[in-house]
Amino acid sequence: MATIKDLAARTGLSTATVSKYLNGFTLKERNALAIREAIAELKYRKNDIARSLKTSKSRAIGVLIPTLENPFYSAITSSIERTLMESGFSTIICSYYSELHAEREKIEFLLNKMVDGIIHFPLNRTVDYDILKQVDGTVPLVLVDRPIEGIECDVVMSDNVGAAFGAVERLIALGHRRIGIILGPDDQYSPALRLEGYRLAHEKHGLAVDPRLVVRGDYSMTSGRDLLFRLLDGENPPTAVFSTNYETTVGAMLGINERGISLPERLSFFGFDDFALSTVFRPRLSVVAQPVRLIGKTSAELLMRRVRGDLADFPLRVSLDAEILVRETIGPVAAE
Amino acid sequence: MATIKDLAARTGLSTATVSKYLNGFTLKERNALAIREAIAELKYRKNDIARSLKTSKSRAIGVLIPTLENPFYSAITSSIERTLMESGFSTIICSYYSELHAEREKIEFLLNKMVDGIIHFPLNRTVDYDILKQVDGTVPLVLVDRPIEGIECDVVMSDNVGAAFGAVERLIALGHRRIGIILGPDDQYSPALRLEGYRLAHEKHGLAVDPRLVVRGDYSMTSGRDLLFRLLDGENPPTAVFSTNYETTVGAMLGINERGISLPERLSFFGFDDFALSTVFRPRLSVVAQPVRLIGKTSAELLMRRVRGDLADFPLRVSLDAEILVRETIGPVAAE
DNA sequence: CGTCGAATGTTAATCGTTTAATGATGCGAG
DNA sequence: CTCGCATCATTAAACGATTAACATTCGACG
After folding, report:
1. H-type helices in B122-179, by residue range?
2. Helix (H, G, I), strand (E, B), or coil: what is residue B312?
3. Which pLDDT score is estimated for B203?
4. CA B289 distance to own-chain centroid
5. Regarding beta strands A286-289 and B60-65, do their DSSP bridges make them parallel or antiparallel, or are they unpaired?
6. I need a surface site. Which of A228, B180, B234, B296 has the fewest CB within 10 A?
């Protein structure tokens, strides 16, 4: 592969001159032309690795996510990648598949690669986040979807409280007084917030929360189905159910279809996250849609700013509004 | 950030010795110990960029895909990433969003980054693939999902003909004689093969193909819905419909739900690709499931082999069997 | 014409590693 | 005691770019 040295030799110029030309300095037209010719003839391709070594900027960003198999993560990642690419940065993907050790291992991995910054989707677990403190001094870090206690850095997330509040309030407005909520694990971040929104909506409308209507699982599809059944099969079942993540929503719909429960006549159902599914079901699913594109774009843009040295408002906490998409699965509470 | 030089200074050894230690050579225990201590104290982190420059191996693989928003691509990508990570390689994602210029631009981009290999999902278009010939000489290239004429390289794909054949044969076995097929654009690779499978199944069973039952769109969700309607609204409509990609399948199901057509009584429906959807619909969707995990794993492993210099069987063309998942949307042809 | 300053080029060191070639050290055998 | 051979370490030159600091060219102007 041709190097700058080769171009220099071919044109009779020095490597410094060629390098400058390549970096946008203007030369005498004669020389510029000669270099252009040499590039074409020798099929010169610049070596970003060498450049990175010298400048200590890799123009690569590490994105650390639980998995690409979940549309929530892959949609955000997609939008991140697109935004970074527009700034000429490449995206190094690392999934950690919710494995404990993998997360810190991969942060090391990324740091070794001299990434210029990291975007991390932490899953809330009791994990040792010292490593993130190390990141702190090294490269900018943006956390997506939730903050981590003790780590001072930018965070981009959706307004979980507001999202849940909005959905539950819609249900209350339709006359529902017994609203079940399907939540995720205690040790994750968002469930508590979504529950808080649920609570606030009740409070605002002077309703008490029946703890039996608050059920928790592991945010998986099967847990969605199982918890739905638990709610429905309890004494004094809810007239509406709010599922608070994508997987449980799919699972719950599965359960609903399985039992042939007709929505919204016999039950009102509010889901979470707006991917392919919600437009396909009949009746069309009412969901809280997190602004995935925007989350991705925002975190990438924020990181770019930090990488460029713009530390204004650090640490910034961006909370993006979710959309409440009322479609066909919620309706007035069924007459007894 | 501490460098090898610092470790050397701290321990009184030479950089060469430290480097060797770091690369697994054995030293006198005394020295090894000293280095380990120094690493801890100085918080040494190896610099993969410098290493790459010297060794001309980046241990990074570029993955070029149309988009991460499509579950087919993101599932394969996920599996690629996982497999590569196991070999200590990082994955650089580049989406080209089906834009013509972006594809070649991004290949350049990846080559500049000195990736050790490229996995590419080409969309079949009349695009100038000279650039891929350049790749040829530089780093190994694995094509996923389809080959490109004139480019001699490894290809991993699913058995499109067999997949379609299998699905259509199931329908024929149920007595269907008029089977509609929803295809993608002419200039993509797989539609022709899927049609071929459809044709072969007819041929085998002595059936003629009615060209009016073969409809083409752009493989989008709306095209799925529209083409379904076109088939159903034609004179002498089909008793079964086979949709040949994920988007059109979702779109067609949307249309089916919209019209309240009951499956499989009034219509048998065979879809393509097995993502979240198919398990959620009631009745459960019968689909041809491409082995996405396996496609990802296989291409990554094959690329790793090439990167390691194992050129056995080059160029290799791997065709992976799709699974025919017969579930509830197909049934015997309706009695008139 | 000589001089000066802007514009254009060059020299050479450097980024943090790796690695051939070479050097030192120690140990057993004769 | 010395030779020879492993074994362990070191020297120093790369890898391909960038970039201060310095050198040259050239035209304008007094």
Report:
1. 130-138, 160-173
2. coil
3. 98
4. 13
5. unpaired
6. B234
pLDDT in tens, B67-121: 999 899 999 999 999 999 999 999 999 999 877 778 888 999 999 999 999 999 9
Alpha-helix residue ranges (DSSP H) falling in chain B: 4-11, 15-22, 29-42, 48-55, 71-86, 100-112, 130-138, 160-173, 190-204, 221-233, 246-259, 276-280, 292-307
3-state secondary structure of A69: coil
Give just the sign of the alpha carbon dihedral B247, B250, B254, B256: positive
Distance between CA atoms of residues B191 and A80, nearest Å:
31
User: Among A42, A43, A48, which would you mutate to test the B interface (most chain B Cβ atoms within 10 Å of its Cβ)?
Assistant: A48
Residue ranges of chain B with per-residue pLDDT less than 70:
124-130, 134, 136, 280, 335-336
Task: Give the mean model confidence (pLDDT) for residues A254-269.
Answer: 91
Q: In this complex, do A253 and B280 lie within 8 Å of one another by their Cβ atoms?
A: yes
Provide, in whole angstroms, the distance separating residue A17's CA from nucleotide D22's C1'. Answer: 14
Q: What is the mean pLDDT of chain A?
A: 92
pLDDT in tens, A75-90: 999 999 999 999 999 9
With an 8 Å Cβ cutoff, are A43 and B113 in contact? no
Q: CB–CB of B113 and A49 under 8 A?
A: yes
- Report the CATH fold assignment for A55-158+292-320: Rossmann fold (3.40.50)
Q: Which nucleotide's C1' sits nearest to the alpha carbon of B20?
A: C18
pLDDT digits (tens, 9 = 90+) for A179-238: 999 999 998 899 999 999 999 999 999 999 999 999 999 999 899 999 999 999 999 999
Q: Which amino acid is at A234?
A: G
Q: What are the structure tokens assigned to B255, written together? A: 């249309």
Structure tokens at A290: 């997190």
Cβ–Cβ gap B49/A46 under 8 Å: no
A177, A168 contact by CB (below 8 A): no
Measured CA to CA, the distance from residue A238 to residue A211 in angstroms comes to 12
pLDDT at A326 over 80: yes
Q: Where are the domains of chain A?
A: 4-46, 55-158+292-320, 160-290
Residues A304, A91, A120: CA angle, nearest 5 degrees: 70
For Cα atoms B66, B67, B73, give the angle at the middle one, nearest 5 degrees.
90
User: Residue B336 corresponds to which tokens in the numbers above?
Assistant: 């008139």
Does at least one atom of strand C sit less than 7 Å from the CB of A178?
no
Superfamily classification of domain A160-290: Response regulator (3.40.50.2300)
Residue A134 has pLDDT above 80, yes or no: no
Homologous superfamily, domain B57-158+292-320: Response regulator (3.40.50.2300)
Q: What is the pLDDT of residue A258?
A: 83
With contacts defined as CB-CB under 8 Å, which chain A residues touch B69? 74-75, 78
User: Across the interface, which of B47, B74, B112 has its CB nearest the CB of A114?
Assistant: B47
Topology match between the domains A55-158+292-320 and A160-290 = yes
